[in-house]
Amino acid sequence: MEKYLITGATGYIGSMLAKKIISSRQKVTVIARNPSRLDKTILSGAEAIRADIADREAILRIAGKFYV
Fold first, then answer.
1. pTM flag (> 0.85)
2. Cβ atoms 26, 18 nearer than 8 A
């Protein structure tokens, strides 16, 4: 099973991408500054991590889980 990491999932493009991947039954992790703004579809089908994309150390820690 593929794992996907999506930033900007509260925006239009990020949310549409997350919903599409979730609907294909793939594992999705989304990064959002404000997870309470995530659509219910995304919340029910993805792991949500609260982080700011501008926080380099946090993003490197999170992204480290996705590199083999």
1. no
2. no
